[in-house]
Structure prediction request, 935 residues.
Amino acid sequence: MPGHPIPHQDELAELALKRVVASGAEYGDIRLLDSTTQTIRGEDRRIASIREAQDRGFGVRVLYHGAWGFAASSVLSLEEVPRVADLAIEIAKGSASLASEKVKLADEPVHRDRVVTARRIDPFAVALENKSALLLETMESVHRQPGIVRSSASLWARRDRKLFVSTEGSHLEFDLLALSGDFDATAVHDGRFASRSFNTPHLRTGYELIEDAHFLAEAPRIASEAVEKVKAPTTEPGLYDLVLDPEHLSLMMHESCGHPSELDRALGYEANYAGTSFLTTEKRGTFRYGSPHVSLVADNCEPETLAATGYDDDGVACQQWDIVRDGIFVGYCTNREVAPKIGATRSHGSNRADSWGSVPIVRIANIGLEPGAATLDELLADVKQGIYIEGHGSYSIDQRRYNFQFGGDAFWLIEKGKRTHMVRDVVYHGITPEFWSSCDGIADRSHRRRYGFITCGKGQPSQSGWMTHAASHARFRNVNVIGGQAGS
Amino acid sequence: MSTIGHKTWPKLTSPDEFRFLADLVLKHSTGDHTFVSLQDQQSGTTRFANNQIVQNVDTRRGSLSVTVAFGRRHGTAVTTDFTAGAVQETVNRATQIAHLSPDDPEYLPPVKSQPYLTLPTTRGETAAAGPARRLEYTNEAIGQCRMENLGAAGIVSSSITTVGVAANTGLFAHEERTDARFSLTAQAGEATGWGAAAHRSIDHLRVQERTLAAIDKAKRGLEVRELPPGRYTVILEPAAVAGLWSSLLWALDAKSYEKGTSAFSGKLGQSIVDKRLTLRNLPTHEDLLGIGFTTEGLPTMVSDWITEGTLTQLTYDRFTAKGRGIDKIPTLDAPCLSGKGPFLPTLQELIKSTERAILVTNFWYIRAVNPTDLTLTGMTRDGTFLVENGAIVSAVKNFRFHESPLRVFNRIASFTNPAEAITSETGKLLVPAMILHDFHFSSVTRF
Prediction:
């Protein structure tokens, strides 16, 4: 609960790291984390739950003779910390017995810093009854639209207070916020049902994010579009030009660019779960990932974005770098362990754990699509037959990130350069580099929007990664659209 | 008291300790109703890739959740701090939230004291296993792969969890649950083979057998051919069957059914799959991961869900169940799908019986495409082969499928007895391997 600080955190950190150093380990760090998560969930015009969870604990990471050990506990005491530190050392020694290739960490300057999320309104200081009322009014508004049978609405906020201390001397304190809100409407018609959703981005900011999202103003539109969507005609399968909105693109970038650019995947670390990558290391610098219009930039420094935490869980300062420049694949997301394996002298700072109890792993950075020069109307104007897609729907991609199939949240037919009417059950399919090579236009910076993810699954035990992807609208030519029914 | 045996592990919360914590919460709470739940876990995972350990972790996490209700207003607060002050603070926060919450028309008080099945949810050998035992299995899997000049990537994990629920209605339950897992991807260049297991007992992971099977698949994948997308007869191994069935089971929500937002709406009592198939919940089955009670304190039970192809049950929340007059809510914690009538004893016999088919080891990234007809998509992964004249003749490049389980499980040619199945995207089930006709692969990938 707020106001109950981690006890003696510097003392606990010192206690753990002294033991790590005494063991002969070449590196060690400790993260002490106190997280508070508030979730308000509405469903069908009622508040189904209000939950506030405090999750507090620490994790000790040890590199011994080139091999890792990690142990963690939710018991923060002067007795538990030495036990856990010793266990991490014991585990690292066990790992070292099977280590054929020793881990060597890329160098990083020692940092001593404090990072605080800028916020105008503390989300935990906003009255719960006001938050509940907003969700209830939003759902009531949604249900005023004839044809709507179900609704949901939620608000989510998280505060992380963290201390990172390493045997190298880094000492980093964090007080980070993240929040989001969403609602949706489900309509039925003629034995079918369809949903339309509204999502704020997940961002590191204050409650102003929710206030500025104007749920009550947006609710009638979302409800109306849900009804229009369920009644809309299906599309004929075939080749279409697609114009994709920033929210839809955020997921496409995440799946088809973000994951394959994780160096640990390219090196086989995730072969048994999340998968490997078609962006193998020999392709760096030469492989044509997309058209010359396509530049995808990792930026963990942009304020308010989820991965912009100042430093990652290796204690590496956040950075900006290119993943794809003018269509050519040029860079990876890395941590201190894997960066040296491709000759890099410094990690890009993309090593993050989802809690005190998880070991940090390489995560996707805040990868965004560089804006172009067009307006959305100009992108549409040059489309004879196409589909405009907003939001997230069905998505699936193979484990090396070549073959994907995406749906969306809402679809409009484009005819002779104009958005006309909604269509339903649109699913498109492609091969990643072919798809991005078909991009021939990107809207300008005024169209740029950011969307974040907090449920990116990777690692065993599975962890949830957080990152933000920004884009302006983009156009893709001759994409294979199939129907959304079985056998299509 | 806890059965934890590893020397460096602390004791998890025992029944007496949980009762103490629950009594502390109930004594401090001023709510009309108060519900307490506990999860206290010690877990470890050794993860390997490229034939060496890349991650080796051990975590102790305890969590206590308190829900306080005044009338129909309720609030929940959770803490990982079990000290008396923190527990009282958690009760206070839940109380504050409840006072500030609007009436929830679907709120129901916690259930009363319940009779539960006594299940063998804890196995001493798993409770006693620690990093050394995980290292032993890791060494075995890597060693076998190294001998074949293959790469090994995978995990060995073990955990013990104490779970408890209590309420001022008299409800009290506490259970210890162990869990052990192994999975391996053997790599021969581009070719991969996979196997996985989960069991209450770490002794039942069959690491060697599963490692050899994954190696065999990887080696068979060295020569790969590309077949066009289209409709094929498929032989689905149990993991692939489990992937499709898990998506089907997740869609059985009763509230969605009643609102008309379910693929099953109107189909209760109707035939939905081949009439030879029956799905039951068997929490007492020693190869499933059955539990004694749910997170709400409801007892698990043996129950029928699909009987000879006919849908007979839905997953009910307590409010919807009450509206339907359902007193005992069936659970689906330990699903077993079985076939009636003639069957073939093994996967190998299924292969032998087939003139031409695609053999699928596993599906990956299964997602709903159309919730109205439960159309799904996903990729084959880690062992996809062409079978001709009763034998595997080559590996094939991986396919994307675009199909509904409500259609494909009406096109069953033959099946085996149920076998253990688990994937990275499903819980554990017992399901047969199956031959299905006319399965739609909509595209092919590059490997």
